[in-house]
């Protein structure tokens, strides 16, 4: 992306709700990718200053994931239903594996 062009991010039209939901899903993936990258940088250095700053930024990315997930639930009723079922689904999986919660 050309950041020197102030009009480079303008779009020809507004997104439909389903398009926005897909875009938010991509944003979630990007935030998770960034968090994993920052963790890799933390693991690859002994510089405590860098570790502290990177950990802070990593944790902000995780917060963004949570915020985007909530937004995705608002935009996508099917995803919202899946999120609502997640606790019982995980409980069933663990129970079937003989693992106590």
Q: Can you characterise this structure?
A:
The protein has 101 residues and is an all-alpha fold. It has one domain. The protein has three helices and no strands. The protein starts with 16 loop residues before the first helix and ends in a 5-residue tail after the last helix.
Number of strands: 0
Structural class: mainly alpha
* H and E string: HHH
Task: Report the span from N to C terminus.
Answer: 46 Å
**Fraction of residues in H or I helices:** over 70%
Describe the structure using short key phrases.
74% helix; mainly alpha; flat; 3 helices; 101 residues
Question: Would you kindly provide a brief summary of this structure?
Answer:
This protein has 101 residues and is mainly α. The chain has one domain (17-96). It has helices at residues 17-43, 48-75, 77-96.
Question: How is the topology of this model organized?
Answer:
Elements: H1 17-43, H2 48-75, H3 77-96
Helix pairs in contact: 1-2, 2-3
């Amino acid at each position: 992306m050309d950041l020197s062009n102030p009009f480079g991010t303008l779009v020809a039209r507004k997104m439909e709700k389903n398009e926005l939901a897909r875009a938010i899903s991509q944003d979630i993936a990007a935030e998770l990718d960034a968090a994993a990258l920052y963790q890799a940088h933390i693991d690859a250095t002994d510089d405590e200053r860098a570790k502290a700053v990177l950990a802070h930024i990593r944790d902000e990315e995780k917060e963004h994931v949570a915020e985007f997930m909530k937004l995705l639930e608002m935009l996508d009723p099917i995803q919202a239903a899946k999120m609502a079922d997640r606790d019982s689904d995980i409980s069933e999986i663990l129970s079937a594996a003989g693992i106590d919660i």
